[in-house]
């Protein structure tokens, strides 16, 4: 009889635990609902994007956002049947924007750095890139070694800013709040060079034409690029991973890659 009572107690405990798991919020250790539940209910999705970093994201004269990341953001909102609200971010403000709840997800060229993954949840990659150096067409700089003693522009909180500090101690970093400010500094001669991602450099080449050239050298810090979300919301992270998995094998993804980056979507992120 005692064994029977124990079995009933154990079964009841297991049932209670199961029910608790089913009604949990999706954010570990909190009572807050998952962002996924909130978006499905409100039909509104707030996404942090760049407004001045071509080809990832720019705001045109009409106030509309467009770019490589914007394509992904709109496709994500459509998958949820939600109305998208864009909020402009910078390299330095991306993670704080998530931590303070000002954005449901960041889609703004967020590179998969190990130290970054300790403070923000990163999805599976939706793009891959490296870092390149751009100089004026008539610059005497022709190699990475030539950057010694030169002023090199980068944006605060970016991978290039980290690379300059760790790998180019003889260079003189000049850090700006936005990519647009970095490009303007190069254009006006305030800096000798600019370091940015392959995607951003593609946009600079397009806008600046023959006024600039890219150093003929292997890309620095080859890496993956992901969406970013606040730590602890596994349900939301799972959905985003599933979305990217399906999106990256779609015709729309390849068309976006070719339009903004000039190449087909890489096999390694499909």
Describe the 3D structure.
Keywords: Signal, Transport. Residues 1-28 form the signal peptide. One of its GO terms (biological process) is amino acid transport. It comes from Mycolicibacterium brisbanense. With 270 residues, the protein is an alpha/beta fold. The chain has 2 domains: 35-128 and 224-269, Periplasmic binding protein-like II (D-Maltodextrin-Binding Protein, domain 2), CATH 3.40.190.10; 130-221, 3-Layer(aba) Sandwich (D-Maltodextrin-Binding Protein, domain 2), CATH 3.40.190.10. It is built from 9 helices and 13 strands. The chain has helices spanning 2-22, 35-42, 68-79, 94-99, 159-167, 179-187, 198-208, 234-247, 251-261; strands at residues 44-50, 52-53, 57-59, 65-66, 83-89, 105-111, 121-122, 127-136, 151-155, 172-176, 193-197, 212-214, 220-229. Strands 1, 5, 6, 7, 8, 9, 10, 11, 12 and 13 form a 10-stranded mixed sheet that branches. It has a 3-stranded antiparallel sheet with strand order 2-3-4. The longest helix has 21 residues, at 2-22.
């Amino acid at each position: 009889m005692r064994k029977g009572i124990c079995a009933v107690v154990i079964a009841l405990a297991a049932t209670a635990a199961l029910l608790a798991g089913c009604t949990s919020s999706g954010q570990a250790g909190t009572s807050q609902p998952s962002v996924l539940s909130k978006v499905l209910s409100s039909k509104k999705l707030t996404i942090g994007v760049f407004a001045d970093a071509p080809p990832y994201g720019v705001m045109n004269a009409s106030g509309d956002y467009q770019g490589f990341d914007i394509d992904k953001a709109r496709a994500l909102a459509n998958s949820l049947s939600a109305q998208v609200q864009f909020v402009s971010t910078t390299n330095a403000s991306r993670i704080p924007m998530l931590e303070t709840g000002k954005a449901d997800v960041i889609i703004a060229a967020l590179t998969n750095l190990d130290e970054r993954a300790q403070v923000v949840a990163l999805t599976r990659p939706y793009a891959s890139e490296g870092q390149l150096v751009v100089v004026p067409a008539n610059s005497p700089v022709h190699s990475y070694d030539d950057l010694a003693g030169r002023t090199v522009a980068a944006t605060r909180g970016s991978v290039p800013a980290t690379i300059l500090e760790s790998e180019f101690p003889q260079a003189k970093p000049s850090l700006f709040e936005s990519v647009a400010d970095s490009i303007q500094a190069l254009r006006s001669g305030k800096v000798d060079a600019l370091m940015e991602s392959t995607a951003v450099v593609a946009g600079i080449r397009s806008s600046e034409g023959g006024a600039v050239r890219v150093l003929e050298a292997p890309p620095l810090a080859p890496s993956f690029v992901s969406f970013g979300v606040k730590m602890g919301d596994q349900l939301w992270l799972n959905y985003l991973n599933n979305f990217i998995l399906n999106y990256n094998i779609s015709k729309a993804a390849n068309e976006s890659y070719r339009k903004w980056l000039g190449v087909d979507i890489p096999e390694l992120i499909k």
